[in-house]
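Usage example:
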Amino acid sequence: MDRVTPPAAPPLRAAFLRLFMVQASWNYDRLLGVGMGVAEEPLLRGLRGTGGDGTAYRAAVARGAHFFNAHPYLCGLAVGAAARAEYEGAPPEQVERLRAALCGPLGALGDRLVWAGWLPLLSTAAVAAIALGAGWGAVAGFLLIYNLGHVALRWWALRAGWDAGVGVVGALRNPVLQRTPKLVLPAMALVAGFCLPLATRWLVRPFPLVGALGCAVAAVLGVVLLRWQPGRIKSLWIGLAAVALGLAGGWLWR
Amino acid sequence: MSAGTLALLLVWGTLVGLDLVSVAQMMIARPIVAGTVAGLLLGDPETGVRLGVVFELFQFDILPVGAVRYPEYGPATVGAVAAAHALGAGTAWGIGAGLGLLVGLGAGWSLHWVRDANARAVRRAAGPLESGDIRVLAHLHAAGLARDLARAAVVTAAALAAGWLLVRAGVAGLPPRVLTLTAALAGGAALAAGVSGLLRIVGRGSSFRWFAAGLAGGVAALWIA
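Running the assembly step on the lines above writes:
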């Protein structure tokens, strides 16, 4: 494929907005693939003029919609990089390899940084703040601070991918990206530990002694069961069993 | 509960259901947000926050990585808050929690059905997709979004209807000890889910020492507060 000059003002904003719905057509065949194609399409419009009949554009759109799986906040990195690679004249196989190579690292980084770091850090902080009497203001604070990080990460990913093209692996070595999990994960662990005693007291406080004891017994038994058979016993089933026991036990408790 | 409030709860629950996967993922789908806003819409923020925290603890036990299947607690929390508010009594939130857990289970299945329907649509459109037909691509994406919108609305409506049925069935008249024990055990199960889920996220490495330090700090804060 020939090299094509990328647009001087790439429509990154259009791609960025579409990335907020990248999972709207999530499916078991291509996972995020269709959404990736939709998000990448504005960036590929500069290819419509090449090949006379838009062949290069359509081929690039088709490649963009192939199988893809990664953390949704970091998908922009692959969208930007793949689109830029199309302009740089990378062979189709190289673009496919680039996308495939990004799935694992972007998934692992996003899971570590967001699902196991940023999100539980702020969520447990909100629960602790509520337990200390902050009320719904804690929830507003959670939403605001979480989304400052969330939106910034999405924008950085798209911008870095577009700037780097096939050299996108270098963007993943960004020092901020490397250092942040080292700060966020211990902070999350610290706040999670801090939150649990406070949440326990906040939940137990309204109950009489028998209720508080019941709550404690259910919590201890639940933890034992969930840790004994992780993945096989679900917390949801324990919750339903607890409610059923509460209804039955309440009738017997005179 | 007025028809206007019910309509607002339906809209809110639908937005919450969309936020989980399809649109934005700005975390209004987190139970702590979904429940609190539902409580504010009902003029009962206390019940909203309480059930929000209970389901947030259950949510800690879910790590949405890859194609893993999981319950969906966002619209379920909205339904739970509406039910607990309609039941009235201070500890009726245990019944609300039970309803929410059932709805969360069904909502998880509905996510699977939508993903399956999306996959069938993608398979049917494989030819045009491979030729780079942008109209087909956009249509597939919009149809996926519409399916999830309908799914979220149906799940929320079902949750609200189930709450209404509980009120009609006279659950509000249950003896206080039944409501109290149900809430206590549901709270205990939520704590178990929260502890187990957070321990899994923290792991056994160096983060565990930070977790232990936080735990000590939390216990100290209990003495001080």
